[in-house]
Design goal:
This protein is of the alpha/beta class. It folds into 2 domains: 172 residues, Rossmann fold (3-Layer(aba) Sandwich), CATH 3.40.50; 51 residues, no CATH class. Helix content is 48%, strand content 14%. The protein has 11 helices and 6 strands. A 6-stranded parallel β-sheet has the order 2-1-3-4-5-6, sandwiched between helices. The longest helix is centred in the C-terminal third of the chain and has 16 residues. It is globular. The two termini are 17 Å apart.
Length: 240
């Protein structure tokens, strides 16, 4: 595979990558060789709950298998994939030539709504047996707090999600010194734009691209616009 425009992609919390196909096609037309990785527990099997450290170690192994010695690495992380990408960049900053974060997770929510959700989750844990017996109550609860991903997950991934959500990456962002392109849908309701603004402020070498009219996955709804941003970013950092 040609390595000049290789880019590793870490998808978000989803069990299929079919929605990525149009975006990958555009990247290929722009001269990229996108490597869409199958993430354990989501698009690949996982037998036991993982921590963020486990995902970083897994991703590091994938990079080592597919990258030549001293070859610069470009990474695109969407949502939860962004969380993994940031944590990896912290441990392997010397390898990362460019980091592209699309509506990334990783900022621990401190707003009032999130505190209420946390309180409700704690309450649910105490009455879990009752709630789990009543499917309608359980589904209404998860719909109310906006955590359908948790509701749909199997037991292993429920524990994995708890492990991931417990980590706040905010303190390490200032140490991510590689070039970072932050791409965000203005109307994102999952990871709000304020998270993207904060990330761009804390990363020492970054820019913020706001996609008007887009929500949590602008790479699906604004394919050409996002692909153009990535191409420009890549060319600026490599002169290729």
């Amino acid at each position: 595979m040609e390595n000049l425009k290789k880019i590793y992609i870490l998808h978000g919390w989803a069990y299929t990558t079919e929605k990525w196909d149009p975006f990958l096609d555009v990247l290929k037309k722009n001269g990229f060789s996108p490597i869409m990785l199958k993430i354990p527990g989501l698009t690949a099997p996982l037998e036991v709950p993982w921590t963020l450290e486990d995902y970083v170690n897994w991703f590091s192994g994938e990079i080592e298998k597919n990258t030549k010695i001293n070859e610069p690495v470009f990474i695109l992380g969407h949502s939860n994939g962004g969380r993994i990408a940031i944590a990896y960049a912290k441990t392997k900053i010397e390898k990362v030539k460019g980091l592209i974060l699309v509506d990334s997770a990783g900022i621990y929510p401190k707003d009032k709504k999130s505190k209420i959700k946390k309180l409700i989750f704690g309450t649910l844990a105490k009455i879990g047996k009752f709630a789990n017996k009543n499917e309608k109550i359980k589904n209404l609860f998860y719909k109310f707090v906006g955590e359908n991903d948790y509701n749909d997950a199997n037991p292993v991934m429920k524990e994995t999600m708890k492990n991931l959500l417990s980590v706040d990456l905010t303190p390490i962002l200032k140490s991510i010194t590689c070039p970072v392109s932050v791409i965000w849908g203005r109307d994102d309701r999952s990871t709000p734009l304020r998270d993207g603004i904060l990330m761009q402020k804390l990363f020492p070498n970054s820019n913020l691209n706001i996609i008007e009219g887009a929500r949590h996955s602008p790479q699906f709804t604004n394919v050409e616009e996002v692909a153009d941003i990535i191409k420009k970013f890549y060319v600026e950092k490599t002169n290729i």
